[in-house]
What we know:
Layout: E1 2-4, E2 7-10, E3 17-21, E4 25-28, H1 36-47, E5 54-58, H2 64-67, H3 70-77, E6 80-84, H4 88-92, H5 101-113, E7 123-125, E8 130-131, E9 134-138, E10 147-151, E11 156-158, E12 164-165, E13 170-171, H6 181-192, E14 198-200, H7 211-220
Parallel strand pairs: 4-5, 5-6, 6-7, 11-14
Antiparallel strand pairs: 1-2, 2-3, 3-4, 8-9, 9-10, 10-11, 12-13
Helix pairs in contact: 6-7
The structure holds zinc ion.
Zinc ion binds near residues 142 and 161.
Amino acid sequence: MEILSNIHMIDGINANSYLLLGDKITLVDTGMPGSQEKILNYLQNMLKSKPEDIKTIVITHHHIDHTGSLYELKKVTNADVAAFKDEVDYISGKKPASGPFYMRIGSRLMSFLTSYNKVEPDIILKEDDVVEGYRVIHTPGHTPGSISLYNPDNRVIIVGDTLRFNGEKVNGPPSMLIEDHEALKKSVEKISKLDCEVMLSGHGKPIPENASELIKEYYKTL
Ligand SMILES: [Zn+2]
């Protein structure tokens, strides 16, 4: 689905992935295990691009619904994998998945049932690094190294699982999926101070306009 001419969303792979088109193509998140075909088909059929045109894969956080197809996609694209420094060890498998019990169990079960292999990130991101025009903003709470990506030119923010939109209002992750409530609140405050028109998240719908207004409304409720 086209969000803007240079941003496409691939849904139905729980969680949403995004293709950012510039001089090169950047993929944000990779869906559940087995999503690679859907992502590559979209790339080939809708964007007339080749797998190797994806030069970077940015991971917003390590959960299986964001890293599930990373191994396969890295293999076919040969892209560099970029992730925030506090999230790298979870993505590489050096640390077991963080978060609630059933996420950890789910992760293990999926690794057992599918070819869910871990990947060592190539690029370790820090606050304020810029990836293809998108500034890295550390927004912990859902996980320790969760990031948002903010582009001040088109005022688009990609928030991973830190926020979501149900078509009416903005919310945080379900309470049982918040590892650190205080950190999450600070992260929402940080995002609410940015000038955002469009908000794109891992789950739920895109906010096509006036995103800041809805984000601020949500922050007031925390
Ligand atoms: Zn998550």
